[in-house]
Write a structure and sequence with these properties.
The chain is mainly β. The protein is built from no helices and eleven strands. The strands form two sheets. Strands 2, 4, 5, 6, 9, 10 and 11 form a seven-stranded mixed β-sheet that branches. Strands 1-3-8-7 form a four-stranded antiparallel β-sheet, with no helix packed on it. A hairpin with a 5-residue loop joins β5 (46-51) and β6. The N and C termini lie far apart (41 Å).
């Protein structure tokens, strides 16, 4: 079994910063992609950013230049540094981790962490 635990959400004023962390533990041989998704009330969950095992990254257009995703492979941890936050960034942020164990690939989700940006 794999546990995925997020931390770092909270309430911040527009223009402020937050750093989200997500740590995976348990039955892990290797982690492939790690990503952050978000879901605002009444909206579908969307991919915010992802980082692959080789270090390449992708971002949704609305966060480019403001958010930075990074990972610590030794600690099976992924981070999301969020700067210049806007009210429209308000959402529950979820971590997603693609884990390889015994030759099988499976995706795991964290429980979500609330990010609220006030205007």
């Amino acid at each position: 079994q794999v546990q995925v635990v997020e931390s770092g959400g909270g309430l911040v004023q527009a223009g402020g910063s937050l750093r989200l962390s997500c740590a995976a533990s348990g039955s892990i041989s290797r982690i492939n992609a790690m990503g952050w998704y978000r879901q605002a009330p009444g909206k579908q969950r969307e991919l915010v950013a992802a980082i692959f095992s080789g270090g390449s990254t992708i971002y949704v257009d609305s966060v480019k230049g403001r958010f930075t995703i990074s990972r610590d492979n030794a600690e099976n941890t992924v981070y999301l540094q969020m700067n210049s936050l806007k009210p429209e960034d308000t959402a529950v942020y979820y971590c997603n981790v693609d884990v390889i164990f015994l030759g099988l690939l499976r995706a795991y989700w964290g429980q979500g962490t609330q990010v609220t940006v006030s205007s």
